[in-house]
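Deviation from plan, reported transparently: 2-acetamido-2-deoxy-beta-D-glucopyranose complex.
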Amino acid sequence: MAVVVALVCALIFSVSSLGNALSSNYYDKTCPNAEAAIADAVEKAFANDNKVPAAILRMHFHDCFIRGCDGSVLLKSVGQNTAEKDGPPNVSLHAFYVIDNAKKAVEALCPGVVSCADILALAARDAVVLAGGPTWNVPKGRKDGRVSKAIETRSLPGPAFNILQLQQSFSQRGLSMEDLVALSGGHTLGFSHCSSFEKRIRNFNATHDIDPTMHPSFASACVAFVQQRTG
Ligand code: HEM
Ligand SMILES: *[C@@H]1O[C@H](CO)[C@@H](O)[C@H](O)[C@H]1NC(C)=O
Ligand SMILES: *[C@@H]1O[C@H](CO)[C@@H](O)[C@H](O)[C@H]1NC(C)=O
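Because the crystal trials were delayed, the predicted structure below was used instead.
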């Protein structure tokens, strides 16, 4: 009996996963020029501001880690609801205008067809390529979410996490240690605010003010910056 139930479930899952599956040719008939329009919007923005690729890549990561890659990071706060983009770890979320511009270009081609979640996933890939990084195939067909809550950004991995906490955060999302190592390579791009590492440059532990495992010139630049900021 258990075997029969298992088989029936497996059948239902495989049928439903077929219906919702992402695919490389998802927009081939409904919006064949979407990918080119998105790449163009990212390229134009990059020509003006070389910080764009890092911004879009991080935005994609924050989107995917909360409620899956559903575009929820793009939603604005409305009424009493504070959205993800206004949550605490938004310190270096920026360049939302790039996704807005890509969306406008795509809407002009084929209104109401391409999800914002797909646009962000494609833009992140295009941004990494423009920055000189690797390329990858982006399967499409993500649906946009309608829920975005600032409080849920607490479940993003934090800069003070140790390796076990990082591994746990990734495994909760079905990601392996190998994924963690590979995706941490995202930090090849971009910058950090010294405030994100404040715990490592002030009263680190009983014997060291500064974490001795931090790169010394980076640590002293951060100390100088933080001192200047707080007078
Ligand atoms: C492994 C867990 C991760 C932690 C703890 C983490 C933490 C951080 C922190 C603290 C910053 C600096 C924020 C600031 O002070 O401005 C940052 C920036 C950044 N993160 Fe991560 N991150 C993680 C994973 C990822 C992943 C998976 C990606 C993408 C593949 C990514 C891409 C980026 C990028 C591109 C920036 C620079 C943003 C910019 O310069 O505009 N991060 N991350
Ligand atoms: C980050 O959140 C603050 C409020 O918490 C908000 O004023 C600011 O506009 C947000 N930044 C972005 C890029 O959305
Ligand atoms: C402070 O941290 C350093 C580097 O991790 C370590 O070598 C040292 O033993 C720590 N001191 C205390 C009192 O924990």
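The radius of gyration is 21 Å. We consider this an acceptable substitute for the interim report.
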